[in-house]
Amino acid sequence: MRTALRTNAGFTLIELMIVVVVIGVLASIAYPAYLEYVAKSKRAEGKAALALAAQRMERCFTANNTYAGCAINVVVDSGSYTISLQGAATTSAYKLQAVPAGGFTGDACGTLTINQAGETSAAQADCW
């Protein structure tokens, strides 16, 4: 008597559904973490651009003994922030701001600022 051996040539529907559920759970955890990582990297780029602009303001002050009339030409490569003076620079003070731009306008930290004394501010305390 011969017995026919059946070989399983694929996956069952239950096995495939389990894989889909596992991938869904992993994606639901990983995607928000990825978005937070992207936001932090854009904030770091904005802070670096603010530091560069502040350095240029200090160079101008050293050369002219005033902040008034100093120009800052700093561009954030990703376009996620726009760097500008908040108000006008005086002889002894300035305040620079990095305003979120493009698709990054909804950032929780909002506008980042720095002044001539190196004091920083943002919408949330942990942004700097």
Automatic annotation (TrEMBL):
Membrane-spanning residues: 12-34
PROSITE patterns recorded: PROKAR_NTER_METHYL
InterPro entries linked to this entry: N_methyl_site, PilE-like, Pilin-like
UniProt KW keywords: Membrane, Transmembrane, Transmembrane helix
The keyword Transmembrane appears for this protein: yes
PANTHER family assigned: GENERAL SECRETION PATHWAY PROTEIN G, TYPE IV PILUS NON-CORE MINOR PILIN PILE
Database matches in NCBIfam families: IV_pilin_GFxxxE
Protein's recorded name: Type IV pilin protein
